[in-house]
Amino acid sequence: MAKALILGATGGIGGAMARVLRGRGFQVSALHRQKSGVEGGISWITGDAFNGLDVMRAAEGAEVIVHAVNPPQYRHWDKLVLPMIDNSIAAAKAAGARIVLPGTVYNYGPDAFPLLRETSPQNPKTRKGKIRVEMERHLQEGGAKVLIVRAGDFFGPGAGNNWFAQVIVKARMPVTRIVYPGARGVGHSWAYLPDLAETMMLLLERPLPDFARFHFQGHWDKDGSEMITAIRRVLGNPALQVSRFPWLATKLASPFVPMLRELQEMRYLWQKNVELDNTALMAALGGEPHTNWDEAVRATLAANGNLAS
Q1: Cellular component per GO (predicted)?
Q2: Which of 122, 248, 268, 297 is the most buried (most CB within 10 A)?
Q3: Is 102 helix (H, G, I), strand (E, B) or coil?
Q4: Would you tell me how many other CB atoms lie within 10 Å of the CB of residue 99?
């Protein structure tokens, strides 16, 4: 039986990849600082993604390593992100595995907008974006087999640390309004996690070069209205109030709250159209998995505890 290791299996995309891999017959293991034993069809291995020996041990015999781990609460990105990816690279080389990285649009600055291609220039204006660029450089030059699939903002079951669950419709709370961060009429790219995970799996099942990189279009909201309208339809409330995100207040508070500082850094992604060109992906797969807006939003709200039981 083929084996896969998930780093970050308790997160949204890590959990989605674990489900897809299990469905394809993989034996799935996950590294966690506290868990051990078998739970949810996953063999949990106690260890830390920051510890190279732990990752090397957990990856023995694996064909796939999903690197979906991030420092919690956006803390210490500059100190933790690159050592963790280097640990995955070393483990993948030792096991002969392919690293799968869920990529982001943080790599790009406004000079690459509005349509992002795999070959678009990467001139990020943020600290986090510069780290993502360096992370991908390590992967490209590290000597391991790699698959990077870049996508827009995550939403879906299990995706808690994102704009949808933290800002637009806060998880585990009654929905009395929608808070939307985007400028009026500006398009935004969303990635529904089950669709993204299935896309990654389909790519893994095809012949790939040692270093492969694709863009996932996902749910392209051409003017910012489609996500809002879908939430209203699912909730059965077409008059649900929409408020604009308080960017000024966030800026004033950001020196004291790390998460608000990170959100403020990402504001530029909400001010202009940011769309991913999936031409290469479509050529490789012949299509892109796509759940309709209402079904995707309904599943997200249900998992986030926003729908009445």
Answers
A1: cytoplasm
A2: 297
A3: strand
A4: 25
